[in-house]
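== Folding the chain ==

***
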Amino acid sequence: MVSLQLHRLAFLACLMAFLTALPVTAIAGGQDAELGWFPYTVSLRNRGRHNCGGIIIDQSSILTAAHCIVGLSADRVSIVAGAVKLDSGGTTYQVSAIHKHPGYNSSTITNDIAVLKLAKPLSYTPYIRPIALATQDPPAGSGTLGSGWGVSRSSGPVSNTLQWISLQSLDHKICQEKMGVTVSQICTTSANKGGMCRGDSGGPLTDERITLVGVYSWGRGCGDGYPDVYASVAYHREWIRSYMG
């Protein structure tokens, strides 16, 4: 177990160093992911069409943003796991129940988090794996990773290939001043004005320990230099855990 964890940490260190050296291209600053790099990231589908991102947290539970499932019944929602392409690969799983956070506020976009239950459990493979929940928010300035199939500019189409990007956690006081967030939210920024965009909602933000720290919620524009806002996993941890298993 120790050697496996060291291997994962070494991989992430190399991954982040590699990404930092690359030019800005897509997801507003992201790069194409390879199969298995982000095995916890899934595509959330509305009647078969990509709608948002999602995160595997156990064999029967997917975490996503509450705004992604507003107005949707479970029979319309499925997820595709184990794929980096939207149009090929992976395994489809039907959602059987949707649990939206009771405190979700569509006006302030707070408590923007939901747990989806699957009709049958996931079959774990090297390309389909869960991720652990953070117990605390990442320190200001620490390195984080985001992934998703979102657009690379405000008016563009979603990416067919999963994208990933290196981001930095923003000091919460600065986040409050710039974006008006609450203690239930965290922010990231990018030196190259990259970031998450439409279609990335519900996707993961992870720290250097390969722990889930945030669920992408909203931002202003797309790669326009504004911080991205996420629901804090540490803040919502107990509520999330109440629907796991």
About this structure: The first strand starts at residue 31 and ends at 32. The chain has three helices and 14 strands.
